[in-house]
Amino acid sequence: MKGPSTEEWMEIARGFEKYTNFPNCIGAVDGKHIRIIKPLNSGSMFYNYKHFFSTVLLAVCDANYCFICIDVGACGKSNDSTIFKNSTFFKKLTEKSLNIPGPKPVSEIRTTRLPHAIVGDEAFSLSENIMRPYCGKNLTKEKRIFNYRLSRARRYIECCFGILVNKWRIFHKPLNVHIEFAQNIIKACCVLHNYVRLRDGYRYEDTLFETALDGLSTTTIRPGVRSRNKRDIFADYFMKKGRLPWQDRMI
After folding, report:
1. What pTM was estimated for this model as a whole?
2. Number of other residues whose CB lies within 10 A of the CB of residue 56
3. Which family does the UniProt entry place this protein in (predicted)?
């Protein structure tokens, strides 16, 4: 998959702001277990916490339910954060070689320049270009509002997986092929997913499909102070200038 240019990242950000009201968002990331038959001589490497054998599809998508990038082939026993940090995408992200636009204000009133970020769940570590929800049960209203607003953007990757599985029914049962062939099948389906999505669009009911793919295990990672400050600014913006009329009813 071709890496987006700076202008294409900006177009993705405009899409997320239009459909999810989350500014400076350039993607949603998540991982899913793809069921496979146990590879020969693999021991427990592909045996996951859900008690079946799998390889992992980690993906980032845009607001049009297209995959921006994918990482395929990690062992089922791994968790989201480990897989993401071992991916080529994360390496390029830390090296700042992905053409991601620089920070910009989210409104005319809020002049603080905030980074463009990819949204994920609690499994991913908070960093300059990765935004995750607040953890814990006794959260303030501001933090609960932020989590709701982030989930509106993050659900796009869940819908993307749902559309993928609903279109390519091979994922409804374990892949009974050699592990390298299984990885090629997954990659091919993701590329075809983008092709069909751009050619035919999508049906709304496809986005409601409950995917048969299982999520990955999570680990708690303590974020750095600078990243927490950026998240707090987003949270404050969602309570003031970026407030939505219905958001209080959703928490």
Report:
1. 0.87
2. 25
3. Belongs to the HARBI1 family.
